[in-house]
DNA sequence: AATGGGACCTGCGCGC
DNA sequence: TGCGCGCAGGTCCCAT
């Protein structure tokens, strides 16, 4: 679930807390999330390094280390990074002691006195220690960041596509960082039906889409992201943007603009939420009739 | 090129 | 109360 605004929030939280800190020790509770190199070498190579910088590209979080290598974190659906105080010696417990099952997969002990837990219920997340994050195949194929993309370029990109708009917004090769929550929210605010083919969008609609995309992402970052399922900030606290959601997860509830019940449909196996009235396909004399 | 499905995982909420 | 099932969605991979 962490999408661009959530990863950007985590980045900001880490910048305030772990820059310059030394990784003194690492505990790996489930090596499945360590994708590169093997867990033992991951642990050995990382121990003793300091965190130099924190970066983000799309939904990927990148920690630049003091030896110029990089620790990358892809949270996929249920990954979390949570910072806590390291328990004084003798009082150490297993992570999440008290709850039935720990979802802490890796703990990074940071001198002085801190512990950064990588939690991941579903184990889809990926941690890597690599020489250069820019060489990751996934990164090389990634589309542009929404911020820093001009309207002109955005329109040029749209012109080449024949897909429906919602799946296209989710396509990381098209544009980086948008996931299922923000795709629905952006389209609602743009008053565009998620099922519309891209080549059908008027120039005005494309402009509106571009502006709403930036507005929604910016606002979500400002409010610390959306905590709908598992996402939490580095402090363990929820992000605050979910209360601004207009359609996501509001299946059957009245549209906040027109009271029409919000619809949920499946697109590419994923849920899409929208208001069939606010996001109706505009009637146009130029539109050829399309019976059924 | 676009689209659809399965795979990876686990907990939750549902119907019976 | 308990069981089985579908669902959640980021990304990769294969098939059509």
Describe the structure.
The chain is α+β, with helices and mostly antiparallel strands. It folds into 2 domains: 4-140, MutM-like, N-terminal (N-terminal domain of MutM-like DNA repair proteins, Alpha-Beta Barrel); 151-274, Helicase, Ruva Protein, domain 3 (Orthogonal Bundle). Helix content is 25%, strand content 22%. The chain contains 7 helices and 11 strands. The strands form 3 sheets. The chain has a 5-stranded mixed β-sheet, covered by helices on one side. A 4-stranded antiparallel β-sheet has the order 1-7-8-6, with helices on one face. A two-stranded antiparallel sheet has the order 10-11. The protein is elongated and about 65 Å long. Residues 285-292 have low confidence and may be disordered. The structure holds a DNA duplex (16 and 16 nucleotides).
E-strand count: 11
Strand content: 15-25%
Query: Biggest sheet: strands side by side, in what order?
Result: 2-9-5-4-3
Helix content: 10-25%
Radius of gyration: 21 Å
CATH class of the largest domain: Alpha Beta
**Secondary-structure element order, as H and E?**
HEEHEEEEEEEHHHHHEE
Largest sheet: 5 strands, mixed
> What is the general shape?
elongated
The total count of helices amounts to 7
Roughly how many Å apart are the termini?
Answer: 36 Å
* Overall number of structural domains: 2
